[in-house]
Amino acid sequence: MQVPCHQTEYSKRLSVAAASGTTTAMSPDAIRVLRGARTRAAFGQAIGVTALTVYRWELPEDAPEARRPRGKKLQALLALQAREGEGAAFATVTPASASASPVRSSAVRSSAVPSSAIPSEDEPAWQLDRARLLPELHELDEGQVGSTERRALQLLGHGALSSAAGRALASAVSIECQLLGRGAIDAALTTLPVLLAGAERGEYPPEVAARLHTVSALVCAYGPAEFRSALRVRSHAGHADELDPSGSLRVRGACASLVAAAEEEDPAVLAHLCDAAAATFDGVGRPLERCLVADALAVAHQALGRVAAARRAEETALELATTLGIGVVCKRVHLRRALRARLDALTPELARQAIAAARQAALDEYETSQLIGAEVEALVRGGALDQALERIARLEQELAGAIHGHYGWLVPVCEALRLKGARQRLDSLVALLPASGDGLRDRAARAYAEAAALLCDQQAAAVEAATRAADLAENVADPQLQLDARVLALRAAVARGKAQARQQLQLLQQLLARCPSAWHDAVARHHEGVLALDERRVVQARGHLEVALATFQLTGDVVLAAQARGALATAELAAGERGAVARLRQSVAELDELGVARRKRPIEKLSTRSGASDKGKPSAGPVARVAACLERFSARGLSPQLVLRELERAARDLLGEGKAASSIAVEPATGLQRASGRFDVSDGVGGKYQLAFRGTLDGEEQARLQALSVVGSLALEVATLRGVDTAPPEPVVDGVELPTLVAVSPSMRVLRDQVVKLRRSKATVLLHGESGSGKEVVARAVHDASARSDKPYVAFNCAALPRELFEGQLFGYRKGAFTGANANHAGVIREADGGTLFLDEIGELPLDVQPKLLRFLENGEILPLGESKSLRVDVRIVAATHRDLQAMASSGKFREDLYYRLNVVRLQIPPLRERPDDVSALSRRFVEQLTPAGTAPPRLGPEALAALRQHPLPGNARELRNLLERALAFEPLPPVLQPRHLGLE
């Protein structure tokens, strides 16, 4: 924003005030205007103070942290003021003893407000209102949302604000406080649209308009489900950035964008945005923003499967939100914890505590349905299936006609109905889901529900439906949904055949390696044991089933523990152990008591096998018992707390209930005071525990506990260190080769990794870089790395066609559509159907063509010239430009809505002068390509390479290629290229 330079009257008043001899202090408004468009850091450097000191100078004089310039600092300010003369904005100088309220200080023009932003006659009133609201803005940044909301409403209700801009700013503050403090958006729905319309008409100063857009972004990210939209969030955040060049609101906009992106269906887009937000979040100091940053990072990391990083960010967010009273963040954290009870291996009791904590906050309809789903899951795992059905009935009433595309309730509801064999209710649930949702999450949810319904009757079609749901979920940023869908596919496949079951089991294990979960690992082991039992590998089957049973007992899953006991009894029966039939019948009776449908228990027929009796081989020996106890710790995803609990349970099992019922425990390093023995257990990062016991143990028992403590220490260290890693490295992607993309320098290696991470994405990519930097090479790499690599790749240069030919070449035309149209022309979009279209120099696209391209990007339809019916086309767009599209959009030279639609994933290609390591590799490649066929390519001498690396290369890779092509154009070719051959001497 430009500082007004025609301030003659203001400067006269300044001169009079300065000549009076009473100028011993400068008012906050005077310092703000003197600072002008400069940042506080730059202004403070000119004066010799820190940015924090400048910030305190600009606070209202009655603010607790406000300070006034004195002595040499005041003289430096006055000297700077004198140097800037007429070009400086008006500064009001007041005596130090005035102690006047900032409300009574002289009105000045804010440096953030251009002279055309508000009428000149309203400017003094706006400046007075702005001074009144500065304390509220400061307190809001400090996280005091409750008191800030009350004072903002008092200023509005008492008519203390006389300018429209002041009232708009107070309304924005009040709405933000209501949203963050209580999750309420009633005021936002009624007030924000009117205020935003005024901002669009230019009725408010830029700082007010920026605040309105920022609040709108927060509402679209944190409000109820029907108002959440990543596209609208990015649009509002972009507007705020343009209107607020100082960046004071940028962190809020970045947090809203990241939270909204976590509900996007493309993990690659989310990973890119999460990495890009790191620079914005670096060094955030204001309490409110620190809380929002922690919550946004927790949401993003959880959606990306970065479990440890998500949990730590969540703890920080909850601590700050509880201290500051940021209710919307508290609510969101407790809701997430309730929904991932299985992923965190929480017992039903702990899950119910998380649900109760979430219910204490005001919840909208979407969150209520999510919590009912969490309650259903806790009831099912606790064995209360009938109560779960009652909760599902309430959920069905709430969901009728009001599904917003958020399906945290879906998996537990389907699982409860499947266990009860309620096929009709599952079919009714499927009917409630969108029939043809546009998003992958919608389609994955419907496929999951359809598979659960088919699995009730053990139909073969369940395998196909469950596999489809799992494949769709792989592309959704939701690790828990991915695991649940793959578990359902495994369950369906186990009933149909070993080959399909083995394939699904392998896919689930690969997924668990990226996102460990003890509960899902136990399910995988259960089915692996069933498969091994079917293959008559009894020893292996028992090992898997015992581990699964131990984990289900540890996490309090009553139903699956009963099923695992039945499967284990079946394995024991196959091994001929005594008491196996009795244990099998007991598990069948337990499942009957729980109300699990009988057709869900294929092992039941074994309980009535003719001739089966309790007489058989003795139970497993001591070595087998030790091996079974140790194998429990191989379950993936156990938390340190669960490892310690399992260590104590395993020790009791090894010693026997009679001897160790109350004589053994795992405690901190101090141990039991009267313990007769102890074994050390450590977590690898300084935590010390002891497996302590009372009484007397013989040599064999001590050896068992010694082995148990060693294995327990290893398991505890693995679980602890998994929580230390903030960002596990992405898995290596086999088979992704990008031979055309040279990536030697660190910046290009990062770019290459980003391209590889986008391999499963359909998101639009915008490439930005200088001319000749290799944008088309990167575009081709994006295509080659994607699933569309075997489909067409079409490049279209928007700067190479006359204006009147654009539409026909881009969208196609029908014969006779215009003069000269002698044949049908498909157009480049249809030529790229199924593949990728690269739009080079997108900034040159004519304005009258841009709305049609926007329509295609929004709904995938084009209307060729001369046609009366739209055509659907599946094309991924990769666009490139060397221009600043955001600046062009602000000046009206490029459509703003098209810019935001293109700018989904932005990849910056650094110029060649910033990556000299790539110069050598590119030079060698160009020499090989440009050498005539049948001729040995010359070598590049060290002097030539050094000269090329030092050359500025303003034309980037294109200029480098031209230099080498010119050197190789003359015969005979030298065996070694020197600087003189390149014309660089």
Keywords, please?
44 helices, globular, disordered N terminus, mainly alpha, 3-stranded antiparallel β-sheet, about 1000 residues
Would you give an account of this structure?
By secondary structure, the protein is mainly alpha-helical. The chain has 44 helices and 14 strands. The strands form five sheets. The chain has a five-stranded parallel beta sheet. It has a three-stranded antiparallel beta sheet with strand order 3-5-4, with helices on one face. Strand 4 (677-682) and strand 5 form a beta hairpin. It is globular. Mean pLDDT is 78; it is low at 1-24, 85-117, 600-618, 670-674 and 724-735.
Draw up the topology in text.
Elements: H1 8-19, E1 25-26, H2 28-35, H3 40-47, H4 51-58, H5 71-84, E2 93-94, H6 123-141, H7 145-157, H8 164-182, H9 186-200, H10 206-222, H11 230-243, H12 250-261, H13 267-281, H14 287-303, H15 307-324, H16 327-339, H17 348-359, H18 365-381, H19 385-399, H20 410-420, H21 423-432, H22 440-456, H23 461-473, H24 479-494, H25 498-514, H26 518-534, H27 538-554, H28 558-574, H29 580-594, H30 622-631, H31 640-655, H32 657-660, E3 664-668, E4 677-682, E5 688-693, H33 699-724, H34 746-757, E6 765-768, H35 775-785, E7 793-797, H36 806-811, H37 827-831, E8 836-840, H38 850-859, E9 861-862, E10 871-872, E11 876-881, H39 885-890, H40 896-902, E12 905-908, H41 916-930, E13 939-940, H42 942-950, H43 956-967, E14 976-977, H44 979-982
Parallel strand pairs: 6-11, 6-12, 7-8, 8-11, 13-14
Antiparallel strand pairs: 1-2, 3-5, 4-5, 9-10
Helix pairs in contact: 3-4, 6-7, 6-8, 7-8, 8-9, 8-10, 9-10, 10-11, 10-12, 11-12, 12-13, 12-14, 13-14, 14-15, 15-16, 16-17, 17-18, 18-19, 18-20, 19-20, 20-22, 21-22, 22-23, 22-24, 23-24, 24-25, 24-26, 25-26, 26-27, 26-28, 27-28, 27-30, 28-29, 30-31, 31-33, 38-40, 41-42, 41-43
